[in-house]
């Protein structure tokens, strides 16, 4: 028998008890079927149609979610409720696969309920500060605590400059240089690797996520594919989202396609990532200052006297532009979807009128 508490479950998550149901955690997602762990062990489950596809639907579960299930010893169990999340990663989803509900269409959660985000960048060709700023913003927005893991330290002789650059960008965030090949630096991650804690990996293709997972596990759990030597890039080894429990009780969520995460609704993440920039906003003479040509602008003053670097300010503006674009795109596509629905209704009504023409 499995103790669901070892998977990070907290009984306080259940706000409304449903008779006959038991808590479980989603460990893998396979289209419309889920791999689940509960007190009875590992099983599979499917969504209860009347709960997830009619009326006010439940949030569709994803890897890492805690759910309530009606356990079935003879077949697939029934997932009847998604419990409230403490953290999540989401991306834009306009496929309409979830019964056409706007809330679900605009946001597809790809992983949930993690404590830490390991942002991976390799110390070779993958190293990119702009990408790191974006990932840090997403990590803060998720509700979890980020840490920057610089992989493949064995491939470079001196990475002190990269470390300084990352520490300057990721203020207040743990930064670690490691090598999955030699084991260098892995002991420094001990503060994150604790039982009942969940870590999600965030990084581009070829950054060494599978190698790091294998190194932390002490065995080969994931196949490692070689990367192209000309540009240090490779393909994602992971083909589906999954949560892996290590022998020490730590859980790792490895997900493909994380580069598709959207920047929509990232105001909180931007505020935490760029608090050194936004601190000047409240010092401006005018509360609606646009930080361009207004007199008494604290941002302009900070830029002029060197308190705030132009590079940092430009990074902030770039992230804000990307967020605004994602928000505008979401609103635009939602309006288009509603317009197409309206046209469809009108076409069906016209068709009915024509087919009934001449009747009294």
Outline:
The protein has 360 residues and is α/β, with parallel strands linked by helices. The protein has 9 helices and 13 strands.
* Structural class based on helices, strands and sheet pairing: alpha/beta
Total beta-strand segments: 13
Instruction: Average the pLDDT over all residues and give the rounded result.
Output: 82
| Termini gap | 70 Å
Radius of gyration: 24 Å
Helix content: 25-40%
Q: Which stretches are low in confidence, meaning pLDDT under 50 for 5 or more residues running?
A: 94-105, 227-238
In spatial order, strands of the major sheet run 10-9-8-11-13-12
**SS strand fraction:** 15-25%
Helix and strand sequence:
EEEHEEEHEEHEHEEHEEHHHH
How would the global form be characterised?
A: globular
Sheet with the most strands, sense and barrel status: 6 strands, mixed
Query: Count of helical segments?
Result: 9
């Amino acid at each position: 028998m499995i103790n669901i508490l070892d998977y990070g479950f907290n009984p306080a998550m259940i706000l409304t008890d449903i008779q006959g149901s038991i808590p479980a955690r989603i460990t893998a997602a396979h289209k419309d079927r889920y791999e689940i762990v509960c007190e009875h062990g590992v099983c599979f489950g499917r969504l209860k149609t009347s709960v997830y596809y009619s009326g006010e639907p439940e949030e569709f579960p994803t890897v890492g979610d805690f759910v309530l299930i009606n356990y079935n010893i003879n077949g697939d169990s029934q997932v009847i409720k998604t419990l409230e999340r403490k953290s999540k990663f989401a991306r834009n989803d306009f496929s309409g696969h979830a019964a056409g509900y706007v809330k679900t269409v605009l946001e597809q959660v790809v992983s949930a309920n993690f404590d830490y985000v390991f942002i991976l960048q390799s110390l070779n060709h993958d190293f990119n500060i702009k990408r790191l700023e974006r990932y840090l913003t997403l990590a803060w927005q998720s509700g979890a605590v980020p840490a920057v893991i610089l992989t493949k330290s064995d491939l470079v002789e001196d990475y002190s400059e990269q470390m300084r650059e990352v520490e300057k960008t990721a203020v207040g965030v743990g930064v670690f240089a490691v090598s999955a090949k030699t084991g260098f630096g892995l002991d420094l991650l001990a503060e994150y690797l604790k039982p009942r804690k969940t870590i999600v990996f965030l990084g581009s293709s070829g950054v060494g996520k599978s190698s790091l997972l294998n190194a932390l596990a002490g065995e080969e759990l994931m196949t490692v594919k070689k990367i192209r030597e000309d540009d240090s890039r490779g393909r994602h080894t992971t083909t589906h989202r999954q949560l892996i429990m290590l022998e020490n009780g730590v859980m790792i969520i490895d997900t493909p396609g994380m580069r598709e995460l959207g920047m929509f609704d990232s105001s909180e993440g931007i505020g935490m990532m760029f608090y050194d920039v936004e601190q000047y906003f409240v010092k401006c003479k005018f509360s609606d200052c646009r930080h361009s040509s207004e007199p008494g602008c604290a941002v302009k003053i900070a830029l002029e006297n060197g308190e705030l670097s132009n590079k940092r300010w430009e990074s902030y503006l770039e992230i804000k532009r990307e967020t605004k674009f994602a928000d505008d795109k979401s609103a635009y596509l939602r309006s288009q979807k509603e317009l197409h629905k309206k046209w469809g209704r009108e076409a069906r009504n016209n068709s009915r009128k024509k087919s009934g023409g001449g009747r009294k």
